[in-house]
Amino acid sequence: MTQFIGLDVSLKDTFISVREGGKRVWRGKCPSEPALIAEVIRKRAVNAERVVFETGPLSVWFYHALTTEGLPAICIDARHAKAALDMAPNKTDANDADGLAHLAEVGFYREVRVKSFDSMLVRTLVAARNQLVKMTTQLANQIRGLMKTFGLVVPKGAGRVFEDHVRNLLATNAGLEQILRPLLDAWRGMRARAAELSKQLVASARASEQCRLLASIPGVGAVTASSFVAAIEDPKNFRKSRSVGAWIGLTTRRYQSGEVDYDGHISRRGDNHLRGLLYEAATVILTRSRADSALRAWGLKLKEKIGFKRAAVAVARKLAVIMHAMLRTGELFESSNSAEA
């Protein structure tokens, strides 16, 4: 008979539950190391049919490592699993492993597509660069705020202009200069590191044919194109381009019960960062882009009816659909194509 395994993964230990013929036949735990877990599974479940675990910080590593070990690893949606695991009277890691094994046995789960390490490498590069940019901005604002206390107002400006203004003002206050100089040096260092990661990201985008294709859209740069390609990976992962908007969380929620039936705000499911990038690109298309396109014309008409923010969300959703269609067909962005989304 075949066995079904549930894994409740944590940073230190992983609880393992094995079911066969509708009942649990073994339960235990071992360190959260895929090679050790694979060894235990091969020993306790010779004919493993499914090895199920939830999405989490270690899910990408576990999925690829267990698959390499020859095990039928399946990563399932943690929100879906939670609804079933909450039925247990006691919330323990061992009981969660039992519940996951039960889901594996009955097949009541929603499998999640696990991204490749190459895609995760691009996402890591984008995240690291964004974090440095954010920290640089926060530190600059902190310097401005501290100097205001002493009547030193830093004029508007960024980069070297900001640094020159700060140094000129601090020259009039030696005591404050000794305190804020380390902060200014740290700001300069983080700005330089952020510039290095930005260069890596631009070089990576230029080397990618898919990113160059998406960059033909006004308002879509290296960050947005790289993030979208890393999230979608293979366009064949979606049967319809329209499904991408819902997958990113840019479609409205619907609630229906009896006589009640209404649409609410967007679901905001999926990749928060990618959704924000698409919204920014839509904003650029509606406000700053000089390139005429059917997408821009449609968005401006919608803006007059429902307002700017809601129109920008609609343009972001349609932009996601267009970008997926471009990856699927390999065609450049054109006004005639953008009208069909």
Name a few traits of the molecule.
single chain; 341 residues; alpha/beta; Nucleotidyltransferase, domain 5; 3 domains; five-stranded mixed β-sheet; two-stranded antiparallel ribbon; 14 helices; globular
Description:
The protein has 341 residues and is of the alpha/beta class. The chain folds into 3 domains: 3-106, Nucleotidyltransferase, domain 5 (2-Layer Sandwich); 117-207; 211-338, no CATH class. It contains 14 helices and 7 strands. It has helices at residues 34-44, 59-68, 78-85, 93-106, 117-148, 160-170, 174-207, 209-214, 222-232, 242-248, 272-287, 294-306, 308-329, 335-338; strands at residues 3-9, 13-20, 23-31, 48-54, 73-76, 252-257, 260-266. It has a 5-stranded mixed sheet. Strands 6-7 form a two-stranded antiparallel ribbon. α7 crosses α9 (222-232), α10 crosses α13 and α12 (294-306) runs antiparallel to α13 (308-329). The two termini are 49 Å apart.
**N- and C-termini, Cα separation:** 49 Å
Helicity level, as a percent range?
55-70%
* Radius of gyration, whole Å: 26 Å
Strand order of the largest sheet: 3-2-1-4-5
* SSE order, one letter for each helix or strand: EEEHEHEHHHHHHHHEEHHHH
Low-confidence stretches: 336-341
Reported for the largest beta sheet, the result is: 5 strands, mixed
> Could you say how many structural domains there are in total?
3
State the total count of DSSP E strands.
7
Number of helical segments with 4 or more residues: 14
Assess the beta-strand content as a share of residues.
Answer: 5-15%
**Shape assignment:** globular
Structural class: alpha/beta
Mean pLDDT: 92
